[in-house]
Amino acid sequence: MKKIIAIVLMAAVMLCCTACGLDMSKVKGDWTLETAAGKTVAELAEGSGKDIASVTMNATVTDDSFTLSSVTGSVTYKIQVRANGFECLDDSKNVVMGVIYDSAKDTLTFQLKQADGNVMDCVMKKGTADLTVSTDSTAEDGNTAEDGDTAEDGDTAEDGDTAEDGNTVEDGNTAED
Fold this sequence. Notes:
Elements: H1 2-20, H2 24-27, E1 29-36, E2 39-40, H3 41-48, H4 52-55, E3 58-61, E4 65-70, E5 73-82, E6 85-89, E7 95-102, E8 107-113, E9 119-126, E10 150-151, E11 174-175
């Protein structure tokens, strides 16, 4: 009788544990940054004067990994699934960060340690963002020059740059100052 009770209790515990686990089918797939430090990607870009692609990141979640990608590169972690999310593990199987899945909002939330040591709260939503940074640069006057043009001041313009005098120049021409 004791063995039967022990088996029934063990089965009940296992059933409860699987019922409380994270449904990875809802989490797997592509995610993109919605907010960081409480600001939207557009607000971050505007505040830093950078292209939106420069301040966003995408993530891909599989059954056993979490990959974060940005314009500077990507990093992949093995994951250990928990009841409300997963933990990202380094090669030594140390926990690098925890990721929480909010099923009501369908978001992933985590804290990302920045190079300067500050920690930034990040929220991701389903989808992906274009991580292609625009190569067009505009000078303070807002005008543009064609690739490889040189201004009278000696600066060579990259594709989309502008001569200091505000004149737009075409390939092979020099802007007058």
